[in-house]
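Task 17 of the worksheet. Students: predict the tertiary structure of the chain below and write it out as structure tokens. Keep your answer in the requested format; marks are given for formatting as well as content.
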Amino acid sequence: MQMPAQWSNFINGQWVGSDQQLPIFNPATGTQIATVAQATTEQATQALDGAQRCIAERRLSKGRPADRVCLLLRVASEIRKIAEYGAKILCLENGKRYSDAHDEFVEAARYFEYYAGMADKIEGVSIPLGDDYVDYTVYEAIGVSVQIVPWNFPVSICARSLAPALAAGNACIVKSPELSPLGLCVLFEALEKAGLPKGAAQLLCGLGSEVGGFLVSSPKTNQIVFTGSVPTGRRIMQAAAHWATPCVMELGGKSAGVVLEDADIHDLLVNIKSGIFLNSGQVCSALSRLLVHRSIYAQVIEAVSTMVKGLTRGDGFSGADITPVISARQQQQIGEMCKLAQEEGARLVVGGGIESEVEGFYVQPTVFADVSPSMTIAQEEVFGPVLCIMPFDTDEEAIAIANGTDYGLVAGVFTNDLRRAMRFTQQLRSGQIFVNEWYAGGIETPFGGVGLSGYGREKGQEALYSYVRTKNIAISLKGQ
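Model answer:
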């Protein structure tokens, strides 16, 4: 596959270079594979001005809403055309399996198809105030939406925010991740081919501390959408507070799956394999804590250990179960978390460290048992292929442990007792609850957290209303 050696930013309908370049590495080998133009604050200003002009001239909203339906469907079609090529690029720069990279582009197309179906259905309401009044509401585009995308699922996460924002008539500036920006360049090539109006969607790859900080601090920014770490999210919210800029924040999690004594162990293993080892655990909603009823605790540990020992390791094109993590820094941080877990008394069942004898940024799939709720490994997000198994005796204890972190993104319960499962869904503190299938749901289901997992919702119909503001119009008919 011939891949360009240099990539650019997309500003006001043009691909634009820069004096400085950011190197892009292949996590499977640690070698540099390309560079991308490092966006500057001057270019960020140009993007903001272009987005404001797009809004002022109503390039997306002055026509009939059906026009946006057709536009988003064209975008989806163009994404599907480049899915295979884009997946190869994403696999190279991100390290994930090719099949998962391809799924990202397919899912991105589905986001545009889904929100295309809603673009002409953003309807206000009539409010009765008596014979002397006519009162109604309308929804307006919120304006310039700055969207900061993480590196773990860049194409899919970009599309889940970009599609509803464009469906509502906004102008968007996407800040791509420095570690994995090339898949987004391919995505924006599809947007360009679809004929998106000038300034409606722009792409900047710059340093988060520089360009990202500039964008979120600007009075020209009308909304911020962020997916990433808690420390970065806090800095963004502090900057947003100055102009009272509304935000949608998704900040990760420490999600727990509760395994009751009647759970199907075979199905459980399938869910654990995808829940914590998909993308080498670099998933915000990963199944990072497994709470197991004491009566089957030893059985589950043995079964999980056997399953993990059979996982394969390799680069994204090999189809292996465990692929490299994104960077040497990420690899080191995961290794340090594993070391600390053992120092705090967790029992290492399998794995436990980085793969230091091979090229690339690999981490061993790791399982810890006898983890207490107060341990660091049970409280802080690892963002790697590391599972903590913890015992419990009663439902009340399981709920207390599951709810006993500052996060609240996802939780789950595995049982054949539906009534018992329903009681858990009512008491687990989380934005999403999975019963017997981790990652159940889809682009149609609202996604977001509570606590340090953030606020606001992406996906589903509910997400669309994050990208509009309500205007109420009250007309007096007295004297008419």
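Marker's comment: The chain has two domains: 6-250+454-472, 255-440. The chain has a mean pLDDT of 97.
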